[in-house]
Every structure is written in C-alpha cells, then in structure tokens.
Amino acid sequence: MGNSNGQQSLLVLDQNYAYQTLKTHPVFGEIKLYKHSETGRKIAIINKQIFESEQHNMKQETYLKRKSYDNINLLKVLGFQKLVANDLCSQIRYLSIQVEYYENTITQFKEKFTEKELYYLIFSLCDAMDYCKQNNNEITDLHPSKILVTDDGFVKLVDNIVALEAISNFHQVKYNDRQVEYLAPEQLELFSGLKNKINQEKANIFCLGLLLSQLITKQPVSDYYLEEFVNLNLLFKRLDQKFAQYSYSNSLYALLKEMLAHDPEERLSTKQVLAKKQYHHFVSNLDGDSVDFAEHHQPDSILQSPNSYYQEEQQVSYHRKKESILSIKATNEEFQIADSSLQKRIDLALAESNKLLDQLSVSSPVTKFQSRATINGIYDSVQNPLVQLTESRIKRLIENSEEAIEKSLIQSKTCM
C-alpha cells in the first residue's frame, strides 16, 4: 500500500497502552484495539477515509467539537489525528480517531433489569439524545448495537459522528443492511410514500420504547413488524405478561405506552420524558451496587411497592384480563370494520391459515411461524385501537396473506 505520514502511536494515551488486535466491529468498522497494562482500560483506533481535502478539514472541525462533548452518557472521543497514506500515484487521506472501547452492548450486559435500572436507561439515553440534538448532531439510529455498557454499568451511546457511517435506522432497513426493526410507524410509511418527512426525535422515543420492551420481554422487536405496520397489540401482550411476572409498576407501564404511542403527535418528546425524571426512583448505573437517587423525590412521589398493586382492587392494572373482541366492538364503534365482507375474509384467512399450518412441512416456503405471525398479527391489529389502519391497507395485507396461503397449498400438494 505504500507508506503513511503520521504515527498511530501518537494517539495512544501513554506507553502503558499495548496493542491487542485488529478486529472488525459492527458499528466502528475495522479498529485497532489497545489495552492499558495496569488498569485494563481499552481504547479503539478508528480510521475514517476522507476523499476531498475540504471534507477533510470539515471532519477535523467536527471531531474537534465532538472531542469537547461533556456528557457522561455518550461514548468519549479521546483524540484524533490527520493521516495521509501514499498509494502508488495517489494519496489517501483519513482521520484516525481514538475512542473509549467497551465489549458489551446493552442486550449483552445482563439478563434481567430492575425497574430502577430501566428508568436509569430511559433517562440516560434521553439525556444523551437531547445533548446531541442541542449540538446539531441528532441521533438517527437508536439501536442496541450502539448502546454500549462499561464494566461498572454505565451506558455509553454511540452517536453519528463516532459510528463508521452515519446511516439512519430507516436507510439501514431500506438498503437491506438490517432486517425490519427499530422503526417508528411513521417511518414505515416512508416506504409506501404515505409520508415524506418525519420527526426524528419522536421516532427515537418510539425506538427507545422498543428497546425497553426487548430488554423486558427478551423477544426481538422484529417479531412485531408485519408488512407496513407495527403490531403493538402483540408487543403489549408480551409486556403484560412480564410486568405481572416481575411486578413492575403501573407508572413504568404508563410511560412506555406514552413512548410507544402509534401517533407521533401523541408520543412524548425527549424533554417531556426527562421532565418525568423527578417523579421516579432510578439508580446511577446498571451495577448491582449503584446509588439509588431516591433523594431527588418528594415523599408523595415515590413509587408504591409492587405488591401494593395487587391489593388495590379499584385500580386499573396492567395485567388485567383482556376484554373480548365482541366487547371491544360493542364499546368502541369507531374501531369497527365497516366492510362486513372484509371481516369475513379476515376470519376465513385465519381459519384457512390455521388449518394449513397443520399440513405444511418445515420445508414449505411459508413457515408455520411466519404464517401464524402474519395472519394472527393482522387479525389482532384490526381489532386493536392502538393500531389504526385504513381499510385499503388492511385489504392489501389480507390479499398478501391469501396469496401466501394459496402458494403454500400449491407447494404442499406438489410435495405430496
């Protein structure tokens, strides 16, 4: 490749840092990893190629400003250096950036989170997102892979500047770099052209709600995406079960509902979430010995103990028995399906699907899991006030399902 002007060693904090390995990281790309011989602290060197000299200067200014960030919830940039590599008749310019390095992402750190830890996550990540937005560096891809955790339990969010590529969550899915997940309902409408602009902050809050649901239920959020909508009914069914199992409070459940509101106009903003900070117990990090910030609360604002919810019969509980579909229809006329033939098609699709699932082999192009998720997801969603779909969109979904069933029947007959 030729030689390089500038030395990587200049980026290392001191001589106690020893080179460990070269590895490919899903967020940072190719990195060189160094480790402190005494403290065990790790740092990573990220190389970002710059193609134009003007862009190179702009990047230097960007990283100079980024290095000055002062927020405990953001991954820290420790230094950067301009490098030029001579390659035959050309020069390759790039910046070498030094950042803190932590192995664990939020989904790898621990199996079960206490309610106080979940509040810590909500407020810490909202604080980091708000800080970035104030510095014209709005987060556009809130994803578990970009939420790192230190060994002592502090959250570190990776922002657009530090990540190898500043690609939004929408474009990650659009370009098939990621399966359909961590997208707000209005972002899904960008695909169909129903929308051409969204409020990224509100989309981030929805994604944060999805993250909390994944940490609580241990189920991938990709399970909730069916065609052009998010099956919030299934999501909250799973949350109901876990809230009852872990005795999480109604207050946390209510906050999640506000974060996961289908309509972005009804969804909380980052500052609205942070405004709730004074009313809740939370801890200083995710370590078992972390400090409880209860001193921030007035006595009447401290959460009740979980067991008290079982004793209050008059209180509407998160784990109450779900109303029947007939009851929902009777009391919520605005959510009824006007076209009775459409309801018959839904019922028929559900019946035919379940019948078909018992006959299909594992090798069928439409697996049992996928078929059941698709049909039941549509059936649940059209009955669910949380997911309001137009009849035309419901019809398209049903048509797709009917087509899938027909193809599977043909396939199953061929295999017999």
Automatic annotation (TrEMBL):
Broad class of enzyme this protein falls into: transferase
Keyword flag Glycoprotein: no
EC number, as in UniProt: 2.7.11.1
Keyword Hydrolase (UniProt): no
Residue intervals passing through the bilayer: none
One annotated GO molecular function: protein serine/threonine kinase activity
UniProt superkingdom: Eukaryota
Entries under PROSITE patterns matching the protein: PROTEIN_KINASE_DOM
Alphabetized UniProt keyword annotations: ATP-binding, Kinase, Nucleotide-binding, Transferase
Pfam families from the UniProt entry: Pkinase
Protein kinase domain boundaries: 17-283
Name of the molecule in the record: non-specific serine/threonine protein kinase
Organism the protein comes from: Paramecium octaurelia
